[in-house]
Amino acid sequence: MKREFSSNATNNNDDDDQLQQQQQQHQQGVLSPSNNVFTDSETGKTFGVILDTRKLPRLKPSVVKRRLDKCKTYIGREKGIRQSPWKLNRVCQLAAGLTLEEALTQLKFCDIKNSDLVAKVLKRTSNLSDIRDGLQISQLEVKECFTTKSLMLRRIKPMGRGRHGVMHHKFSHIRVVLREIDFPLRIYQQRSFNQKKKWMFHQQRAAQDAQAAKAKREETDRLVKQSEDQLQARKDAAAAS
């Protein structure tokens, strides 16, 4: 038995074409590079547009090092942690080399001991960057995250047949270095278009977070100044009366 279906819907091919054109224009507007061209100061060579999917020449290590040295860094420490440096370093290796958002996500779902402590140190260091230069979590990456050896307590270890040994209680230090992300460099170093697009959207989100934080900070300063002016006006009125 053949079934036929009827519909009152009209042909929306024109609307679909217009919607597709709008999406393409929006994508081009988001992904269009603006002054994202690398120029070597020594040779004067231009390496082309960042979003070009062709195989671009690799940057010299000296060029990469000069760019990364200009980025702002923030150091955080935690001392006297009651855990072996070898065991604690396994947790730190999960966060090293990642962006701060990815590192916090990794540590959130990590079940190893003191993973929450490492995340706490990372957040505390990111708060320092926000206070000093107004950098948000989406604008930072974990440059270094490792542990070092601290003091070691010796205790008696009872053994059989009246013997005894030495038992060591190890302590550790954590050192964290956060660095500002150089988005143009990261985008240029990616070899596929999807990776470049990913970092472009990450850059756009970081700019939005920074703008929102700046607006919030300005609003807070305005309210503080307003309250101070009101308090000063009350003092002047009380002194005049």
UniProtKB/TrEMBL annotation:
Annotated Pfam families: Ribosomal_L22
Family of this protein: Belongs to the universal ribosomal protein uL22 family.
Ribosomal protein among keywords: yes
Entry's Gene Ontology BP terms: translation
Gene Ontology molecular function, alphabetical: structural constituent of ribosome
Polar residues bias spans: 1-12, 29-40
Compositionally biased residues, Low complexity: 19-28, 204-213
Keywords: Ribonucleoprotein, Ribosomal protein
Protein name per Swiss-Prot or TrEMBL: Ribosomal protein L22
Residue spans of biased composition, Basic and acidic residues class: 215-241
Gene3D superfamilies in alphabetical order: Ribosomal protein L22/L17
Record's signal peptide: none
GO cellular component, one term: large ribosomal subunit
Parts forming coiled coils: none
